[in-house]
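I have been asked to look over a protein record a colleague put together. Thanks in advance; the entry in question is below.
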Amino acid sequence: MSDEVYHQLAKVLDTLPNGFPPTENGVEIKILKKIFLPEEADLFCELRLTFETAENISKRTGRPLAGLDEKLQAMGKKGQLFALELGGTRLYKMLPWAFGIYEFQLERLDLELSKLVEEYAETFGRQFFSGKPQLMQVIPVEKEIKGMHQALPYEQVSNIIEKSKSFRVSDCICKKEKNLLGDPCERPMQVCMSFAPVPGIFEEGEWPGRVITKAEAYEILAQAEEDALVHLTWNVQEGHFFICNCCGCCCGVLRSITEGGIPATDVVQSHFYAVIDPDECTACGTCADERCQVGAIEEGDDSYLVVREECIGCGLCVSACPQEAIKLVRKDEKECVTPPKNETEWYNERGKNRGTDFSKYK
């Protein structure tokens, strides 16, 4: 096969709601050639965003069943698709570029791919963060919203944990990429958490990272808050399966704010913002220098102040203020956009807003 199959794959990925925009120099094609063999790219183009067995895929596409399951399993191990074994049945579905194929390259990421992804980041981010709904929502430090009756279940990290029965933690691919590029982060790397509503699901298959208990999940989240890492998860009401604990120097999402200049409200969904009481603030600078990951806190004449339109409402500044001079405030309801109910609704809403017909891949 020629490069045509990679251009076809790029077109399929850009048809999906998440997008995969073309560039003038074709760096996106170089990325795909690095990740996929031609025959793998060809097979990916015939998958869907919903789980199917190899038998289903064979019947639908006319591909021979013999050897198909093995090919799909191999692609799953390479992070080219989502492979899952449930009750002895192996299931497969395609992944968007992000959140998806990129994050699933954790164990294959090398310097060459890191450079390609970094080169592609501006073009991808320009398209990706211009659409709604946003991919990510911020989950505030929960102890800072506990007394607020307005906090909804999808705004509480404990809700995600308590609904889950399987837990896993792995390295952050953004931190690994920055490491490979010679710009390492001092904060912990093993901070990306995955969840599932089915017991023991991460004990089967070849998942990166390690299986953890519910108690360990809470410990990791507490440590992340101590290390000033922002809790980010999918911008839906239910069906959350990950929490990323992110820093502004590495995270591709937060870097789009700090380095790309994209407005915070376009990048992430958040229903809160921080406010500093100037009468209580002693201008120690802890909030701005050590806690805020998006540069939303500035030094004033006698105290620090929060630039509201840049604040993502994570609560990290609140929890570390020695004077308790900062509080987390819920936005007015007219500013709060209710996330899509689940994955399907997120895809549908995003696809509609982008004007892309991805019905072939549902």
The first strand starts at residue 82 and ends at 86.
